[in-house]
Design goal:
Number of helices: 12
Largest sheet: 3 strands, antiparallel
Oligomer: single chain
Strand content: under 5%
Helix content: 55-70%
Structural class: mainly alpha
């Protein structure tokens, strides 16, 4: 029995699993379609998945199905986490149960080889599920960026000091909020970069370096945005500062993406065999 026939046979089983998470779909779709959301990269994931299965079609058809019984243990653990999360109203726990459930089901029905083949899709889909408390993890980065921005302003003889994530410039107060840390643009840039570099004929080490480079671009871009917003407030006050904040963020994101696209055109290694 090949992979496609196996999928058809197990369709009912997959349907039952989907019913468990059906009530979450409206809120997830809302996050996926919100441009200002950390999870707005989901449309990119759809494109990537389509290309992934298209390129890997032959490999999927040649992959031997070898179900592993211990995958059922992972499924049971995932179901336990789901029901505890629902009963205790812990969204993080019930959300984490989905990638665990997907992994266990893949192992139980199709085996380790098939699971490893489809692992990139599972990882990216797991990141797209709106349950991670992203903005609760950004406080150290908010404070760090506020400190860097303050030091940069002081080097330019601008009187500024920071308390936590707040920067005081003369009579104005600029607060480095969670969104200013770049968690939104960073996620999108990383996912787009992964899509671009994943199918490239380059070594894994170079791919890791490129992802790190994207992270660095995003960090520098967001620090630049903070400084530009500070300059705007110094010379123009708070009038239309929110609009400037949004527009400059969009411009910096676009510039960063263009840099990545240009870089993508010069990283092909003819001598390195595609290993994905």
């Amino acid at each position: 029995m090949n992979i496609l026939k196996k999928f058809k046979t197990d369709f009912v089983f997959w349907g039952i699993l989907c019913i468990l998470y059906f009530k979450y779909i409206p809120s997830w779709v809302s996050e996926w379609t919100n441009f200002d959301s950390f999870y707005s990269f989901f449309p990119f994931l759809i494109i990537f998945a389509f290309q992934f299965f298209k390129i890997k079609a032959e490999k999927f058809s040649q992959t031997k199905i070898q179900p592993t019984n211990w995958g059922l243990s992972v499924v049971l653990i995932a179901l336990m986490a789901y029901f505890i999360g629902v009963k205790a109203d812990i969204a993080l726990l019930s959300g984490l149960s989905l990638p665990l459930l997907l992994s266990g089901t893949m192992l139980f029905l199709y085996g380790k080889k098939f699971f490893m083949l489809i692992l990139p899709i599972i990882i990216l889909f797991s990141l797209s599920i709106p349950f991670l408390p992203v903005f609760r993890l950004t406080v150290p980065l908010q404070i760090f960026l506020a400190q860097l921005a303050t030091k940069a302003l002081n080097l330019m003889d601008i009187n500024a000091y920071n308390l936590g994530s707040s920067i005081y410039i003369n009579k104005y107060l600029v607060t480095i909020e969670a969104g200013c840390t770049g968690v939104k643009s960073l996620s999108s840039l990383l996912i787009v970069s992964f899509m671009l570099f994943y199918f490239k004929n380059i070594s894994r080490s170079k791919k890791v370096f490129l992802i790190f480079f994207v992270f660095l671009i995003s960090f520098i871009g967001n620090l630049t945005r903070i400084l530009l917003i500070d300059f705007y407030i110094i010379y123009n006050g708070l009038k239309d500062a929110a609009a400037f904040h949004y527009n400059i963020g969009l411009i910096i994101f676009t510039v960063s993406l263009i840099i990545i696209l240009i870089l993508n055109e010069f990283v092909e290694d003819d001598q390195v065999a595609t290993s994905q």
